Amino acid sequence: MSIIQVERLKSHFKTDEGIVKAVDDISFELRDNEILALVGESGCGKSVTVQTIMGLLKCPPAIIEGSIKYLGKELIGMSNKAYQRLRGKEIGMIFQEPMSAFDPLYTVGEQACEAVSVHSKLDKAGIRDKIIAMFNKVGIPEAESRYDEYPHQMSGGMLQRMLIAMTLACDPNVLIADEPTTALDVTIQAQVLNLMRDLQKEFNTSIIFITHDLGVVAELADRIHVMYAGKIVEKAQVVELFDRPKHPYTKGLLASRLKRDLKGQILPFIKGTVPRAFEFPKGCRFHPRCPHAMEICRQRDPEPVVFENGHSCSCWLYASNNNIDGVDKT
Amino acid sequence: MKGNTAVRVRKAFFKHKLGIVGIIILILLYLMILFADFLAPYNYKNTKRDFTFSEPTKIHWRKDDKFVGPFVYGMTRSRDPVTFAVKYVEDQEKVYPVKFFVRGETYKFWGLWETDVHLFGIGQHDDAVLYLFGGDRFGRDLFSRVLIGGRVSLTAGLIGTFIAVVIGAIVGAFSGYFGGWIDVTIQRLIEILRSFPRIPLWLALAMLLPPTWPSTTVYLGIVIVLSFIGWMGVARVIRGMVLSLREKEYVLAAQVIGQSNFKIITKHLIPNTITYLVVVSTLSIPGMILGESSISFLGLGIKEPMTSWGLLLKQAQSLSDIQSHPWLMIPGLFIILAVLSFNFVGDALRDALDPYRAVDKV
Description:
The structure holds two protein chains of two kinds. Chain A is of the alpha/beta class. Chain A has twelve helices and twelve strands. Chain A has a single domain (about 1-90, about 170-260, about 265-325), classed as 3-Layer(aba) Sandwich (Rossmann fold), CATH 3.40.50. In chain A, helix 4 runs parallel beside helix 7. Chain A starts with a strand and ends in a 17-residue tail after the last strand. Classes of the chains: A alpha/beta, B alpha+beta.
């Protein structure tokens, strides 16, 4: 069963330099009880995708088309009031920088309280108990006394766990995690990832997990969507993707990871940089950097090709001949 | 919990020595104007032609080397035969003891009931007065006038600043948070209002207020009108601060928990500008107190016989006045005292409200 169904979603921005197609025609679904990872380089549209889902983009300048269905309910075009009821209660979100996600003027407890009290009718003491229980659950030592401390008195890892506790205290169906471990050091990263996996099982929350760290994805995710320049180029189960990557970009990403046997050598990398958002190349957006670029790649955008196990990939390499009729093959 | 924050702020505030001094002085000043009628030995309007520019009355404790408690001598007024300057000579024959809870002129306490009890005084006599700060050019008691004048100076500054800062913070925050056409409209409006020259605007606004109003009401009216203009400076700065604050992730975090825009503004954006608001308030209260004297000077504000500190100080404008009647400067001391106290309290409050500074470094 799918919780969130995204259909041909476009989030474009009107700027003086032209229209920025930050997210361009992507479709995916978030299934019940799964962790879905959105992976890609900086600027590929991961964050814009989830901000669109949360209704956080201002229109204008944003131009949003397509459809986002949450449990069958259309979110695009929904009123701000209705969105306010949805945010936090139905869909929670945590951020990359736990340090700045807390208002420095209030104690962490007060802020967690605020999050719960927006949607809950519990009284102050009840909310406090609930928050402290959640703090304990995410492994905050001395949760009772930490409750009355200020964000700057905490470490980043602790704040991130508090943010998770505070978000889950509202008991949302979906948790969107926007690079929650990027700002943390490696040991804390592992702790937070384990915590998220455990809590996901306990609360039956579906998670959309955004990251550019493939190692993190391997740890956590059930399925992976690889994004490049505003498009989803490959979708697969996590094991499938690591074992049999299809798209040249995915292959490049996997090849550029650190490996023991590469000691002393220059690391492999994908040549070039992500094109700037208002001048995406015609055709397949990856073709200027692609080692397998063909003539058709420069002219037409590839459609997704479906393989077994729900694995799909948008690349001309896998297109059958009748798809590329009328174009010279080189 | 909320209570915890209050305790922390109070603790941090009381660590600030000057802040404590400031708040004590302010409390005393405000108590003083609250009970001004009772504390003042004379009615601020009463003129005594025999005591014009009389110097502060000396209070004596001993007579003929015997302690008899506080008393004053009667005064005889004469002129210096050479300079024609008025001189007051104590008449050692006439002794008037200073009494507490003495009956004097009647007044209406807080406008509620009539009474004639004053904290201290010597009663009504033709040839003796108890003028602690001396007399003015109509022979009125300067001490009583300072107490009454404080009412206007201390309340008007507070009210004016409060209105200006509240309007400024709210309008500025909305303008910065929503941006777009709301922002453009508000900012252009502010620019139009700000481009009016100040003094002609005051004059025009003063004409709008009905002349039948008593002068205190007129002055309060002007202060309120002034603060309706004065909010614009605050609004612009707050808008700028909110423009940067709204990009902070905690605002995004508040949005994703489903908090409403209004709550985000009032709970997160405006409180994060509080240090600026506190500073701007404490700096503009003195400005309002000082500004009052210039308004009075233009004949728009307080009119005699009602008074204020600024108006009292106006008497001490010429050098010869200060030389011959230096006690006319006393209202200036009160202005300095009030202004400094507000600044100290503002300083202490700013430090206390800042969570980064309040925490003891371990």
